[in-house]
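#dry-run=false #mode=assembly
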Amino acid sequence: MDPRLYEEFRDIGRDIYVVNLTSSHGGNMSVRVGDRIIIKRRGAQLGRLKPSDFVETSLFKKDSGLIRASTELIVHRNIYLKTSALAVIHSHPRTAIVLSMSRDEIIPIDNEGSYLLHKIPVVAAEYASGSQEMADVVADALSEYKVIMLRGHGSFAVGQTLEEAFHWTSALEEVCDIILEEHLMGETLKEYRRHSEAYSKW
Amino acid sequence: MQGWAGKILDIDLTNGAVRTLPLDMEMARLFLGGRGLGARLLWDLVGPEVEPLAPENVLIFAVGPLTASGAQTSNRFSVSTKSPLTGTGLDANSGGWWGMQFKRTGHDALIVRGKAEHPVLIEITPAGVQIKDATHLWGKTVFETTALLGQDNQKRNVLCIGPAGENRSRMASIMNDGTRALARGGPGAVMGSKNLKAIVVEGDQKNQPEDRERFRFMLYETGKLIKASPITSQAYPEFGTAVVMNVVNEIGALPTRNFLQSQFENAELISGEHMADTILVKNQACWACPIACTRVTKTSHSEGEGPEYETAWAFGAQLGVSDLELIAEANYLCNDLGLDTISTGSTIGCAMELAEHGLIDSSLRFGRGDLLHETIRDIAYRRNLGDELAEGSYRFADSYNASEYSMSSKKLEMPAYDPRGMQGQGLLYATSNRGACHMRGNMLGPEVLALPRLIDRLAYQGKAGIVAVHQNAAALVDSLVICKFTNVAVAEEYFARLLSAVSGLDFTAENLMRVGERTWNMERLYNLREGFTKADDTLPDRMLNDPVEEGPSAGYTVHLEPMLKEYYAFRGWDAQGVPSSKIEGAGIG
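#status=ok
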């Protein structure tokens, strides 16, 4: 593994954990390298990644890599097959998870969130971990959106780099924190954006 | 029945007596069934004065409280006996359909004693139990016998021995449903020594859960976990157990050429991936199994089942052979002749090394796959050098004053993990009650696959407790009786709830782990009574004194002594590895 790629994994993984976007052993990340995927191994701590914590496996064909790779390898593979993503981050942003449990979509109310994300769809799968059903609904949603929520489970974000996918993930949680805090304040919002209703159709 | 049928069938082949005994429910609560129940019964039935191939030895076929309930992989059963290969107490375990069907006959166990005057078979049906003449079947292979007796997976299931069992090879398996094996430790030779060719079962009773609603919910929950695990939902179904071949090779723990090396240059050619690309026809499942790891394969000359990982290794890397078709056909042969593939392959590997050194007069050499099939036939029929090999690698090598070439512990051949590259696996092999075995708490999980967490495979301090816990968990799973692959995805807390729903009794995960520990101690006490000591908790010199020369495990031997000391202490045994002779509530001591 290229030491610089490892450093990117290590630094982004550390950031994801430090800013509370996942628990100690939750979440996973991968990048596409040609026809291969490099993905965090199952059970490795995102905040403490070592060079030995990665598995390289084929993008197009299952192989023995899947017995050490993250449980969500099936989802990562499906995303790369159905989208032009080059990096995928899966995390467990807490406020976003809470909102996903009562909404079919999350519409940002702040300016930055509206600008960056417009809308975050919430998708659901009965087997919300590692299943083909889940892989299909997540990958389908990510063919239209750069970050999505899997109801009650967590986020999947794509980008050309890990840093980009991290950006969408942290933006998502910021959006959701603002929605939650606005809800807790209970004050009437003043609309400041034109066509704000269109976000739900994004 | 809800969980247990409450009955043990007891057949004495010497006089033809058939009895039905009540199952002691306190014993059932303490040992559940399968391996645990077998170990407890063996303590009472077979003492140290009994030779393994004497009529006084018994075969105890046992199922568990979950068997035939419909819980995932609740198809399995075990046989317990004194092993003719190791001299230890033995249990061997198999899947398929026979176990489920036997449970449906309304029994928790079948004890077979004595020796028939001529070849016989036992038939257990709703009409009753019959001991029938089987002279016409003696000499038939497993596939022939199974077909002649009317095998039908859903209704009528056949268990039998092949020529290897008849000829009392110490590596002979008992086969059920044609291709499933009670393989290790030579139980087929015990069956052969009793002139018992086959046991046929047809049942009409059901194991109906006491709390059906809770049972359905637990099936749903465990089903989700099995589906979510990439290992049980993708790796095993698509590539079989040989999916670990490349991984084990990569870390330098794939024994090669009788453990002279720990990496095989052609591992890829005998891997699950290569199998899927070449000879695999389809995967197949045992009864009530959602995993379906069985390989149905076809070569240029033949077709059949297998090979799984251990077999692909035993006839592949262990012998320096990389022709997957030849390996698969060796597997078909062993199934048909009734031989344990691991011990057979490893013993041939031992002979190859002896021949390389000029210690025996034989054409066998590493890489001589062309001699493999004929050597296997010779072992089953005890012809030529095969007659000596049929004794297993230890006795064979020892007869040439070369026992150090036998890669075994307690005379059972080590399976497909070089313990120098997996220290915990080394302790596991050395302390395994039936001899070197990976199915007694495989450390592949924590040392390689991060199940449940990744630990340093080359470290030895702190390993003992993890090994012991895995051993206890394996003994539990073998006593329930379900498939260990379920345990890859499903933890003990789920098993406790499943068992509670089926039986109507309250079990906790802690209760169940105690069953595992109790079973392990029971087996240990049995072996001590047989004369085994701490000195038998060891490994071949090569593992202890010859460091791996190349690869990721280079420089390592097994640090057994400190791990063993820690292990005895963890289990609460004394410094000689002796547990308290009293097992709480078990009626011994």
